[in-house]
Amino acid sequence: MLIKSIFDYIMALILLILLVGLIICMIFISTLDTKDFGLFKQRRVGKCGKVFLIYKIRTMRGIQKDTITTSSHEITKIGQFFRDYKLDELPQLINILKGEMSFVGPRPDVEGYADILKGEDRLMLQVKPGITGPAQLKYRKEEEILSKVDNPIWYNDNVLWPDKVKINIEYVKNWSFKKDINYIIKTVI
């Protein structure tokens, strides 16, 4: 895990230096597009259940909600572009530098999910949450999946979330640096 931490810090620092101009530009565009400050912060559950503020580019007008309850008409066209290419997540490089996140790991969820896990399911809280990982890759079209069901909250809570927990526990149990690199490559591709 020391290699993972060193890799995360060095890569996040390099990428932040290279992309700071793009991130500032996106914050400015998002501010104009959403009529609200373009850098969005939200409470998320991290390692050991500790709550932290995640940084993202704002993609919706009005009150930003979690993607579980978001309907696509609230997302701006520019915001959808940022989401489609995961550009809205670039500010999370700051979370990595602060030691709150990793490039690869279970996705940090809003309160009411990971923080209430019981038993072996809490194993996924033993690692830093990630920008990408096996569950994120499997459900990269989560918004599209949820838009096709009658009750997206029920479907998320009873179908998607339990499967993500299972996938994330397998990730923690079978972690390797080589697998992390493969998840990063698959995310970029």
TrEMBL record:
<feature type="transmembrane region" description="Helical">
    <location>
        <begin position="6"/>
        <end position="32"/>
    </location>
</feature>
<keyword id="KW-0812">Transmembrane</keyword>
<keyword id="KW-0808">Transferase</keyword>
<dbReference type="Pfam" id="PF02397">
    <property type="entry name" value="Bac_transf"/>
</dbReference>
<keyword id="KW-1133">Transmembrane helix</keyword>
<protein>
    <submittedName>
        <fullName>Sugar transferase</fullName>
    </submittedName>
</protein>
<dbReference type="InterPro" id="IPR003362">
    <property type="entry name" value="Bact_transf"/>
</dbReference>
<dbReference type="GO" id="GO:0016780">
    <property type="term" value="F:phosphotransferase activity, for other substituted phosphate groups"/>
</dbReference>
<comment type="similarity">
    <text>Belongs to the bacterial sugar transferase family.</text>
</comment>
<keyword id="KW-0472">Membrane</keyword>
<feature type="domain" description="Bacterial sugar transferase">
    <location>
        <begin position="4"/>
        <end position="188"/>
    </location>
</feature>
